[in-house]
Amino acid sequence: MSRETHNFIGGNWQAATSGHVFDSVNPATEEVLATAPDSDASDVNAAVQAAKAAYQEWRLTPAPRRGEVLYRVAQILEQKKEELSRVMTQEMGKVIVEARGDVQEAIDMAYYMGGEGRRMLGYTAPVELPNKFGMALRESAGVVALITPWNFPVAVPSWKMLPALVAGNTVVWKPSEETPLTAAEFVKVFAEAGLPPGVLNLVTGAGAAGAALAQHPDVRVISFTGSTETGLKVYTTAAALGKKVALEMGGKNAIIVMDDANLELAAQAITWSAYGTTGQRCTATSRLIVHKAVKAQLVDMLVEKAKSLKVGYGIENDVQVGPLVNQKALEKVERYVAIGRDEGANAVVGGGRALDKGFFYQPTLFADATPDMRVAREEIFGPVLSVLTINSLEEAVAVNNGVAYGLSSSIFTENVNAAFRAIRDLTTGIVYINHGTTGAEIQFPFGGTRGTGNGMREAGQTALDSFTEWKSVYVDYSGTLQRAQIDNRE
Ligand code: UN1
Asked: Using CA atoms, how far apart are residues 211 and 480, in angstroms rounded to an integer?
């Protein structure tokens, strides 16, 4: 039976003013799971006004109290982890064990950012004059807008809203139109934790709602994760209005395997990073850059592993690969596999749809790709891995760095010198040694170089940079106008 979700504005659950709705479809069964408000600019405006009205009181709430709300969010999420994970699997298809991991990232982030309520460090530094004091403080920015994707429908929003909230901002959140039900269930956790009305507002909808947020004069900061195409539109609109924007966009992540690597370990990591989450992570591995001496052996191992993966409805415990999120995503994968075949990349496993119902695709491996092929350069966002052959570490690094994106990369080697050279030379925001390209932890900066982002990072202490303004404060306790010494200093 289909459920009905609502916007959450100023503490009230309500329909879109237009009354329009859209369907959220289970990608494994193709059944309608929920209907949700298809919000327009008037709903977005109502949410922004609610966030604006709640701002002064929230900003003046002592940060430790704000942090305590986040601890309660963490505790309620722990209790509701299974329920929320199941809704997520039903709504966007990731297998249940990964859905639990998604919720766990939000729990970790809630504890981490809850701690910021008692930290939120600024600094003091010596000043040039006697009887004078200087300090720099982090201050909230105001109303912040979050636009988030469906592939991590709880974790990614949590990376944004938890630092935003602990810093004293109020929030308007527009989740992906693929996951309105998961979003509504997540917002309920904040309400239950005692977050005051208006501090966190939810508006569901598609492009019109996102565009209205990017344009809204009362929105100071926009944090976006999603496709490069949409992200750049948001950036252009918001930058023209002088807003701060944090972007997290595409990836074309690679694992390098050197000739001295532990091949069984590498094969396991590649399989998980390429086909886990059906390849629908911005950190997923879509290129394998392998030394020619071990290529044939590694490809054989990967083909075996890809064949043995169980594709199906992720709510069943033994399923390892769920569906693509929707028909469009499935067709995109099909299109790219056709392109790869035309380019001569040689699909040695997979290469077609799986199962009769649902948006399933077989884990696919192109064994003979080259760095100039589109399948080795463009983001496919599906279970498709392209193998590129190299002869040296230098060549591997050049191939890794030679794409438009720079999120995550990895090297498998037993040689400590090679590992440290790779750490130095791989130009991605995240580098792994003897580990796949997925699985970033919330304590560290998350984000990428080149076309992946715009220089901002999420998670870790750096998350606060998106959602705070620095205020420098000078206190002159000399009782005199101490001007001459600094203005006329020789
Ligand atoms: C994403 O795909 O947008 O590092 C986020 C990882 C996860 C987060 C991925 N912790 O794979």
From this structure: 52
